[in-house]
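Hello again, I could really use a second opinion on something today. I've been staring at a protein lately and its backbone has me curious. You're getting the sequence in one-letter code plus the fold written as tokens. I'd be grateful if you could look everything over and explain what you see. No rush at all, and the record is pasted right below:
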Amino acid sequence: MGTNSSIQEYIKTNLTAVTEFLLLGFQGNQLLRNLLFLLFLLLFVATMCGNLLIITLVSTSKNLQTPMYLFISQLSISDILLITDIVPNLLHILLNNGETISVIGCMTQLYFFAGTDAFECLLLAVMSYDRYVAICNPLRYSSIMTNRFCVKSLVMCWFLGSFESFIVTVTLSKLNFCGQNIIDHIFCDIVPLLELSCSDTFIVHLEIYVMGSPILISPTAIIVVSYTYIVISVLRIQSSTGRQKAFSTCSSHLIVVSIFYWSIFIVYVLPSRGQTSDANKILSLLYTVITPLINPIIYSLRNKDIKKAIQEVFHKCNVLNINWH
């Protein structure tokens, strides 16, 4: 009788419900963590400035009131939400060599991360369709890409992204977490949370794949089909100048799509056997930190219309300064 009660007490002690997690982030000596802190702080500031600049220019410049720039400004909003959800907490982790986060806080971070990532997947598909119409059906562009169509597309992307994220977060929050509470990652992600759960996760995996696959597979199919038609149309252009101009209008989008989708594909779709936690952390940085940084650069800051809008802003500022003095 005493032995049974001891065993029960041991099980009860070791299966205590987890109320908080320990995020490890990047482990190393103080100097390394300080250098990483400065690096991520600079990346965060640069990303915020770049994306806020794009949002401001698109909302104030009459020359940028087109579907393409509307989508780019929405992408900037998504990038700001994503990097704000990930990087400040990561900076705190680096300063303290790890950080405890409540289960509710962890699920909240997961919700915003999954929601913005799902939205970006869908938005990149809409943007590829926009490029398809612009290159393959230029005469019908204004009649297809109407303001009503653009607004409906954006509302649908935000709704589906938020809904998918909500379902995944609620499903994960219903799991039992007991025993070990250490997350060897830079933020609260789906895979490490599933590995820590002491519940049966088969149904959870099934639900996540059923909900998540359309968010990943459908946009991928739209992007592949769109760019297949784009390539065919561009190759039919007789002049090399025309081909180069057509390719330049969609090359930036294709670069961002490639980085974003391949990093997500490697982390979430390919088997992680033999893949270290450090490799997963670095790959995660690609679509949580690096992509939000390079989006305004390769999408817009090298664009002639954006440069013109920036020049107009500086010109107005100079005129105001002259008038003031």
